Amino acid sequence: MLNRGEYTGGVDVLLTHSNHVFNDRKQTEKMQPYPPLQTLLAAAVLRRAGLRVVFCDIAFDAPKEKFQAMLRACAPRLVVVCEDDFNFLSKMCLGHNRELSFWMAKTARKHGFSVAVHGSDASDHVNQYIEAGFDCVLIGEVETTLLELAQGMALNEIAGLVYRSPKTGAVHYNAKRDLRVNLDSLPRPAWDLVDMEQYRTAWLDAHGFFSLNMVSSRGCPFKCNWCAKPIYGTTYHARAARSVAEEMLLLKEAYQPDHLWFADDIFALSARWTRDFAETVESLGAQIPFKMQSRCDLMTRDTVSALKRAGCLEVWMGAESGSQRILDAMEKDIRVEEIYSARENLARYGIKAGFFLQFGYRGETWEDIEATLRMVRETRPDDVGISVSYPLPGTKLYQLVASEMKAKLNWSDSGDLAMMFRGTYSSNFYRALADALHLEVRQSGNEEAIRIAWARVHEFEAESACSTAGVR
Fold first, then answer.
1. N vs C: which end of the chain shows fewer Cβ within 10 Å?
2. Per-residue pLDDT tens over the stretch 197-206
3. Residue 395 has what DSSP assignment?
């Protein structure tokens, strides 16, 4: 096994990813970087099998220079661009990340190395990644598929693999791989491969505290029709509550983070699991203040009480809209009043509430937008994250708007907010709307700036109306 810094020849697998912080303007401004958990879990599985693994983390360093230097130093048998399935940036299939991964494939091939890729975007666009130079694409849950590939199993025998035949050039799709049910069979992430001080310094300089990431589950059983799920589908599997609490204690003792982010799609799905988790965290003394993502309808008083005991500071929920008509169209399966109840329950226990909001859904009107603004102003969340509807392959939304799609099919970065189908308003309107609402929620005392921001929204609203009417 190789630890970080031991870059000698004879390496079995070089693992990397394409999420360079400074390729994304919004993430550079936020500066809340996390190590790629899925990549580190894959590394741990490979090392447990006795393979020699190195990790090329390009989050902060010049990605092309670092990648080429490590290729030359390590001479790996296999290069794998393994994206973090638990990071929303990877799930968004951003253009800058795709371009960098394509460059990595070409560069690895140029140096004579075999190269594979795993991630949401690669799963959705297999042929593009094969054409870009990847020898194979790992579909679905990655660990076992990658292990079999790295151990040299015949390509046609590896479930979950798509590959180009070395002889004919034809692309072959193998059978799907069954998902892992027992997540506790996985080792801990290979944290030692990370230059933790890079992350610690970035957090301390930007925020004055250091945050690390964890996951307690995989997947989401709900069926919001805009949500792409190329890795886990609508399955959901959770780790044992004790296992999660023990990993919290491990991180607390080894790296002393001031804060944790549970990157699960849905944390605390089960009220009983949440109670068990809180009790175990308390008994182990493993509390670290944390934030998490969940659903409004899951934030009952009992669950919120247990979360508070476990150390929860902040819950982000997919409120999406204050219009019941839009929530129903999204097949969100929540009621507007449940958003209000969740906010009230969290406030009762002193836990911050963040709302994910989505504007521009198909058929949304100004009246629907006003309903969302009213809901935000009445519930007064501590923060909001704002997006516009982003149709991704495999979703019902994508099917509904496919005929209206424009030439641009992916955002370049997470702050793009471009409408990629024919919406009610223009991209500039939704960007102005996001700016104005963010300003109102985050800087309520700056009344003049807020007034100017909303005036800009109404200017773009009028322009969009004129454009729709054929006026130039």
1. C
2. 999 999 999 9
3. S
| Bridge partners, residue 214, by sequence | 262
Cβ-contact 81, 101 below 8 angstroms: yes
Which amino acid would we find at residue 220? C
Query: CA-CA distance, 358 to 369, in Å (whole number)?
Result: 10
Output the CA–CA distances (angstroms, integers) from residue 435 to 89, 305, 326, 438, in the order listed: 20, 34, 22, 5
Place of tokens 């794998």: 80
What token pair was written down for 32? Answer: 């809340």
* Nearest Cα residue to 269 out of 217, 327, 333: 217
Q: Which two tokens stand for residue 444?
A: 């309520």
The Cα 37–Cα 190 span in angstroms is 9
Residue 180: phi, psi to the nearest 5? -70, 130
- What's the whole-number mean pLDDT along residues 177-206? 97
Cα separation, 289 vs 70, in Å, equals: 36
Strand arrangement of the beta sheet that strand 383-388 belongs to:
211-214, 259-262, 290-294, 312-320, 352-359, 383-388
Q: Give burial (CB, 10 Å; 0-12/13-18/19+) of 95.
A: middle
Average confidence score pLDDT of the chain: 94
Q: Which sign does the torsion angle of CA 446, 451, 456, 461 carry?
A: positive
Q: Which of 120, 121, 147, 122 is nearest to 136 (CA)?
A: 122
Mean pLDDT of 263-272: 96
295 contacts 266 by C-beta, under 8 angstroms: yes
Q: Residue 416 in contact with residue 386, Cβ under 8 Å?
A: no
Assess contact for 164 and 270: CB atoms under 8 A: no
- Among 368, 370, 387, 388, residue whose Cα is nearest residue 378: 370
Confidence of residue 367 (pLDDT cuts 50, 70, 90): very high
Q: Given strand 78-82, what is the order of strands in its sheet?
A: 53-56, 13-16, 78-82, 114-118, 136-138, 161-164, 171-173
Residue 106, phi then psi, degrees to nearest 5: -65, -40
Can you give the pTM of this predicted structure? Answer: 0.93
Give the 3-state secondary structure of residue 196: helix
**2 falls in which pLDDT band (50, 70, 90)?**
very low
